[in-house]
């Protein structure tokens, strides 16, 4: 039997000394597309962070706050996804004078997310939706074994968000996404984990669930 990528057993999770989730039992296996659902503030981000901390494989992250540096260009923010693949001297050269091949790699993922002409623009001049696209491009450039996304398309219009979410999960063998859209969750996930009242109240294959089942998480 293949060992899970990460497993949490009877964990209490929180931040700032305050428990948010208790009695958490959850494992993630390679090849799964898991969506975390529940009300805002229920602990989806907390659970996502705990999973991230336990995964030894290469992870690409799309955080809810985007994790961008406003004073740097779109190119440099996307390139941050692969900084740990290069040494300090190489990264300093890229900061000052990116190579043509590096620009081409970034431009390819910017085209995918609809920002193909904005590589030289500073992130501070972008809209919220454009910043979210930069965060998606950074994850796509990084690639890896697992992608973790915390509301990764919430700032985009529904049709574009759905397209980019589908593209994102097809680029990674395994995905864990915190979402708020039930229909999006059912389309994307192979497995849905529902949070309510400080714990996991649902953990089932997406194919076995309906929108009505999931609405109970928000009552």
Describe the structure.
Helix 6 (158-170) links the parallel strand 5 and strand 6. 37% of the residues lie in helices and 24% in strands. The chain has a six-stranded mixed sheet, sandwiched between helices. It has a two-stranded antiparallel ribbon with strand order 1-2. It folds into two domains: 1-58 and 144-219, Rossmann fold (3-Layer(aba) Sandwich); 69-143, no CATH class. The model has no long low-confidence stretch (mean pLDDT 95). The protein is globular. The longest helix has 15 residues, at 128-142. With 219 residues, it is an alpha/beta fold. It has helices spanning 44-54, 74-79, 88-96, 100-113, 128-142, 158-170, 182-188, 211-215; strands at residues 6-15, 18-28, 33-37, 59-62, 146-150, 174-178, 191-196, 199-205. Helix 4 crosses helix 5 (128-142). One of its GO terms (molecular function) is ATP hydrolysis activity. Pfam families: ABC_tran. This is Phosphonate transport system ATP-binding protein.
The profile of the biggest β sheet is:
6 strands, mixed
Figure out the total of helices. Answer: 8
Order of adjacent strands in the largest pleated sheet: 4-5-6-3-7-8
Instruction: Note poorly predicted spans.
Output: none
What is the H/E string? EEEHEHHHHEHEHEEH
CATH uppermost class of the largest domain: Alpha Beta
Helix content: 25-40%
Count of DSSP E strands?
8
Query: How many structurally independent domains?
Result: 2
Distance between the termini: 38 Å
| Rg, nearest Å | 18 Å
CATH architecture of the largest domain: 3-Layer(aba) Sandwich
Structural shape: globular
Strand content: 15-25%
Average pLDDT confidence is 95
Q: Which secondary-structure class do the elements indicate? A: alpha/beta
CATH topology of the largest domain: Rossmann fold
Domain ABC transporter: 6-214
Protein name: Phosphonate transport system ATP-binding protein
Pfam families: ABC_tran
Keywords: ATP-binding, Nucleotide-binding, Transport
């Amino acid at each position: 039997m293949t060992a899970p990528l990460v497993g949490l057993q009877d964990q209490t999770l929180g931040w700032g000394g305050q428990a948010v989730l208790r009695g958490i039992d959850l494992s993630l296996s390679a090849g799964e597309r898991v969506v975390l659902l529940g009300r805002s503030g229920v602990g989806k981000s907390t659970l996502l962070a705990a999973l991230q901390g336990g995964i030894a494989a290469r992870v690409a992250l799309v955080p809810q706050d985007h994790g961008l540096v406003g004073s740097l260009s779109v190119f440099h923010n996307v390139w941050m996804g692969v900084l740990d693949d290069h040494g300090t001297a190489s990264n300093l050269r890229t900061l000052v004078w990116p190579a043509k091949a590096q620009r081409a790699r970034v431009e390819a993922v910017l085209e995918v997310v609809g920002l193909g002409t904005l590589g030289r623009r500073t992130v501070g001049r972008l809209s919220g939706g454009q910043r979210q696209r930069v965060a998606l491009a950074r994850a796509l450039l990084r690639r890896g074994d697992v992608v973790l996304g915390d509301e990764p398309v919430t700032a985009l219009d529904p049709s574009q968000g759905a397209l980019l979410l589908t593209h994102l999960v097809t680029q990674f063998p395994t995905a864990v996404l915190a979402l708020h859209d039930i229909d999006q969750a059912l389309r994307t996930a192979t497995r849905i984990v529902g949070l309510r009242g400080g714990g996991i109240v649902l953990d089932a294959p997406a194919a076995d669930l309906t929108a009505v089942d999931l609405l109970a998480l928000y009552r």
